[in-house]
Specification:
The chain is of the alpha/beta class and 122 residues long. It contains five helices and five strands. Strands 1-2-3-4-5 form a five-stranded mixed sheet. The relative contact order is 0.18.
């Protein structure tokens, strides 16, 4: 797995979006992506980022959930809007817990196109 291929800027309607692809990953790989994405996000100007994270078919354990909570909370100053893909009913419980802990408004979407459109709308 190349983390650089899973955390990269994409463009949609002339706007830059940081795409964080955590789909189909095991717990150890999730932690690697979190560490790498954290460095990218926290090197950006405050309140400047649009982020799109795909957690479709990814695996979670307590360590990953704790890391996600800290990661999401620490990213708050840098992220203007955040969208998430792949939040199924079981992951919804974890998703809500992460939002509550981080005091962030993350919006879950069913399709990447809807998520990208929402991120770039004014």
């Amino acid at each position: 797995m190349q983390v650089e291929e899973r955390v990269k800027f994409i463009e949609h309607k002339g706007e830059k979006i940081l795409f964080i692809d955590m789909s189909n990953l095991l717990e150890k790989e999730m932690l690697e992506i979190i560490d790498y994405a954290k460095k990218i996000i926290r090197s950006q100007p405050e309140n400047s980022l649009l982020t799109l994270t795909d957690v479709t078919h990814s695996r979670y354990n307590v360590e990953v959930v704790n890391a996600m909570q800290e990661y999401t909370k620490g990213n708050k100053p840098y992220v203007k809007k955040a969208a998430v893909l792949g939040v199924n009913p079981i992951k919804r419980i974890i998703f809500n817990k992460i939002m509550e802990f981080s005091k962030r408004d993350l919006v879950a979407f069913d399709t990447i196109e809807k998520a990208k459109d929402w991120l770039v709308e004014k």
